[in-house]
Amino acid sequence: MIDEKGILFILSGPSGVGKGTVRKALFEQDTNLKYSISMTTRTKREGGEQEGVDYFYRSHEQFEQMIHEKKMLEYAKYVGNYYGTPRQYVDEMIEKGHDVFLEIEVQGALQVKENFPQGVFIFLIPPSLEELKNRIVERGTETEDLIINRLKEARNEIEMMDKYDYVVVNDNIEDAVRKVQSIVQSEHCKRSRVAKQYKALLEVDDK
C-alpha cells in the first residue's frame, strides 16, 4: 500500500478577495485538511485562546532564534509582534498524510515559495477590480483613502500571478471551492508524486 504523504497548499490573493470564506467552506467539506497554525509573540487574549489551537505562542527571543535557524516558512512583524508559519508543524502534518492549507497574503506566499518550493500555490482573484472594490466597501471598515490604496496594491499583486501554480476566479464561493478541490485531487494524482511513492514501495518489496 502506498504511504501517501500530504501536500502543502498555499491559498493566496489580494486583500478582500475572499480567501477566508473559501478556506472555511473548503474545510467544512474535507476533514483530512489541516489549517496551518501560525506562531506569534503576542500574548494570549482573554477568553480562552489555546496553545497549538489558536496560535503557537513564543517569546521574541525564541521567535528570532527560529528565524535565525530558518525554521519559519514565512514571517512578518505587525505592531511590535512577530507572526509567522513554523515549518515543523507543516512537516509533521504532511508526514501523517494530511494536506495542510495556508491562507496568506501575497508577500507571505512569496516567502513560502522560497522556503518550501514543493508547495502548491493557488492564486485567488476577483472577477474584476470593480467587484473587489465593492467587496471591500461592503465591509464598512475602510476609509476611502485606504480603499484606493488596497486597490492599487491588488493591481500590483495580480501582476504576480505568474509565480503561482493555479489561478482560481472567486466569482461564486461554491464554484471556487469545487475548483480548489479539483486542484487538490489532481496534485495527488500527479505522476511525479505517485511515482516517487510507488518506487519507494517497490524498494521495500525487493528487500
UniProtKB/TrEMBL annotation:
GO molecular function: ATP binding; GMP kinase activity
The encoding gene: gmk
Residues holding ATP: G13, P14, S15, G16, V17, G18, K19, G20
Keywords assigned by UniProt, alphabetized: ATP-binding, Cytoplasm, Kinase, Nucleotide-binding, Transferase
Localization (cell): Cytoplasm
Residues covered by the Guanylate kinase-like domain: 6-185
GO CC annotation, single: cytosol
Protein name in the entry: Guanylate kinase
